[in-house]
Structures are given as C-alpha cells and as structure tokens.
Amino acid sequence: MSKPALMSLHQALRKSFQTLEGNQKVWKSVLADCSPLMGSLGNLAEQSRALSNVQISNTPLRDFPDLEERLRFKLSQATDTVLGKLNEKTSSLQSVRDSISNQVSAVFQLYEQNTDSLDLLAVTERSATAPSVSDMLEWLQDAERHYRQQFLRRKTLLLTLRADDLSLLESAPKRWKSLECPGAEDHITDTLCKVSFFTESQ
Amino acid sequence: MEGDITVTQANRKCSAVTGSTRKIKDNAADWHNLMVRWEKLNEDGFNVAGNLVNIRLTRSQSDQLVVVDESSSPSSAPSQQTGGAAELQDECCKLQDVIDRMVVVVKKMERLTASQQGFQDLEEFQFGLEGRKCPLFHSWNTKHFNESSCVLLDSFSQELKLKQTILQELAHTATSDLCMVYLSCWLHQPFITAQTRLTLEALLLETGHHPL
Cβ–Cβ of A71/B185 closer than 8 Å? Predict the structure, then answer.
C-alpha cells in the first residue's frame, strides 16, 4: 500500500467536500432567489390571461385609446424582464454544477491514476473519524449527479417557456416547485455531516 | 470648514445661472421630483386597490354563499355584509385620497408646462420667431423644452384619467378578470411609457442635472 497516494487522494477528497459545501449554499440561495421570480412570472401570465378574457370595448375602459395594446406591451415587457433575470440565475446554477463536476472528476482521475498503488484494504478501510475512500467517492458521485440532473431539468423548463404561451407560463411556478428534491438535498447535507471530522482534520 | 467651501462654491455656480436658464433648470428638477412623488403614490394606491379587490371578491363569494344559506341563518348574514361594506368604503376613501394627491401632482405639472410655454412666448418677444441664436444649455431650443413638457404632461394626464376611472369602477366590479385588468392597469401604468422616462432623462441631461 502506498501511503503518499492515499494521502493525496484524501487531500483531494477534502477539497471536493469543501467545494461541495460552499456550492450547496450558493445553489440554495440562487434557488431561493428564483422562487419569487417564478411567482411573478405566474402572476404576469394570470394578468395577461385576464386581459384576454375581458372585452375592453364592453367595459368602462373603452374610452382609453389603445389601452389593450399598451397594457399587453407592458405585461410582455415585464415578463421579458423576469425571464431575463431567471436566465441569469440559471447561469449561476450552471456554474455551481460545473464547479462540482470539475472537482469530482478531478478526484476520480486522481483515484484512477493511483489504482495500482491502492489495494482493496486502503480504499475500503474506515476509521472513527474518516469514512472509507470508496464511500466518499460514491457520495461525491451521487451529489454530482443530483446537481447535474437538477440543473438540466430546471434549464429545460426555462427553455420551453415563451412569453406568448400563457398556459406554459401559468403552470411554470408549479412545475418549477415540483422539481424540488428535498430528499436528495438532505442526503447531501447528511453526507457533509458524515465527512465533517474528515474534512476538518489535516 | 471644507463643507462651507463647497457650499459657497455651489452657491456661486448657482447664481451664475439666471433668468430663463435658471427657471428651466428648476422646472426640470421639479419634473423629476413630481414623477418620483407620482411613483410613490402609485405604489401606495396599488396596495389599497389590491385590498379593495380582495374585499370585493371575497364579499361577492360570500354573497353567493348567503343566497345558498339564506333559509338556515337569515340573521347573521346582513351584519356580515355591512361589515364588508364599511371596510370597502374605508378602502375606497383611502384610494380617493391617493388620487386626490395625484390630481395635485398633475396640477403642478400643468403649471410647469404653462410656465414653459411662457418662456417660449417671452423668447419670441425678445428674439422674434426664430428664437435665440445660442442654446440655453447644450443643444435644445426653448421650443424643445416646451414639447418635452407637453409629452410628459400628456402621459400623466391620461394616466390620471385612467386611474380615476378605475377608482369609480373597482368597488362595483364583481368579475375577477376585470378586477385583475384594473389592477394590472394601475400597476403597469400603460400611458407612462419608456418614452416618458426617456423624455425626462433627456431633460435632466440637457439641463445638466445628470452629467452627460
């Protein structure tokens, strides 16, 4: 068994979990920023729907010149603004995903380079403070997969939205919320707790 | 000490601008302040209008329930209804108050536009129909200022009319779609366009309130 190989693998794992922890926080805060935006998107769609349902010429608003066009323009402008902000948020989500993916693939690369010098015992052995290398690699892979899938699902949802398709916009907040996966997030938090002694030790 | 110096410098700079230039510059600042005040009033009014619609819609729902329940409990229904009416009246008064203050803002805007017209008349009197040879600020002539004022005043007068109509109708509207349209009209102000804001910005740039 090669001690330096194991040491450097441990070091890389530590770094990965630290990256994961930081990125999990960023991810959560970006998602928290998204939900009010999604809310306003649904609300704007509701307003556009109401405008379509009302025949302005039969209401007291009939005396105002091109009111409907003006209001519709304002609504689509506001929708555009919200969609633009959501797109910005998606790029933040993308950078979280990229950062985690890069880190995890770097650890796996390091592991594969050193497989010859790491015997079965070295990768499966665990202590009171440190989980086994194989467990940690698995957890990292799980977390990486979670963020990769989450990002793709959310990005796809946003890509299908169009300012002129009201029913899609109206259902967007609900569908966005249904993508939430608290189980997987909790799992990552649990993992971070399990490795906390390990990441803090040097 | 330093503060005093800057104040005197500012004073000197101000006193260098006199006559029509001074007045037009002040008018531009007034336009800005009035529009800020309008935005604040619009926000306040929107909250009141939102409450109003909520009360109105829950009331019309409970009215329907009352019709259904009439046989079972005829005594409790009217008191509930009058309670809603008082609340509704209260919110209507608040909204009226907001609109009254908006009327004051638009009145002031009218006065600004009138004084702008005054400058143009004065200039025609002083320099003839072509106006003055060199511009008061960067490039605009007095007519240009006058046109900007008219554009701004038009937007806000039309918007005020729209809001007055909404006030009259809001408490009597039972269909949720129409209520929603009233609310979104109030919020999005269809007659205050990007052009309105650009006109103000141009005015502020020209008069030097915003650096070029």
Answer: yes
Whole-prediction pTM: 0.81
List pLDDT tens digits, range B74-103.
444 444 555 678 888 999 999 999 999 999
Residue B36 lies in a domain: yes
Amino acid identity for residue A31 in this structure: L
Alpha-carbon distance of B146 to B141, in angstroms, equals 9
What is the predicted pLDDT for the residue at B13? 45
Tokens of A182: 């608290």
pLDDT tens by residue, B105-123 = 999 999 999 999 998 888 8
Q: Is position B29 within any domain?
A: yes
pLDDT at A2: 64
Please state, in angstroms and rounded to a whole number, the distance separating the CA atoms of residues A39 and A42.
Answer: 5
The model's pLDDT over A70-104, given as tens digits with 9 standing for 90+, comes to 999 999 999 999 999 999 999 999 999 999 999 99
Contacts of B195 (CB under 8 A, 6+ apart): B151
Whether B60 maps to a domain, the answer reads no
* Cross-chain residue pair A60–B189, CB shorter than 8 Å: no
Q: How far is A104 from chain B (nearest CA, A)?
A: 47
Is residue B45 within 8 Å of B186, Cβ to Cβ?
A: yes
- Contact A154/A179 with Cβ under 8 angstroms? yes
In total, how many domains does chain B have? 1
Measured distance between the N- and C-terminal CA atoms of chain B, rounded to whole angstroms:
30
The whole domain housing B119 covers 18-45+97-206
* CA–CA dist A134, A11 (Å, integer): 14
Nearest-angstrom CA–CA distance, B122 and B112: 15
Contacts of B184 in chain A (CB under 8 A): 47, 50-51, 71, 75
In a domain? residue B164: yes
Q: Would you call B168 and A60 a contact, using CB atoms and an 8 Å cutoff?
A: yes
Domain range summary for chain A, segments of one domain joined by +: 3-200
Q: Which residues of A touch B180 (CB under 8 A)?
A: 46-47, 50-51
Evaluated on CA atoms A157, A166, A162, B181, the torsion sign reads: negative
Q: Which residues contact residue A72 at a Cβ distance below 8 angstroms, ignoring those fewer than 6 apart?
A: A48, A51
Chain A CB within 8 Å of residue B115 CB: no
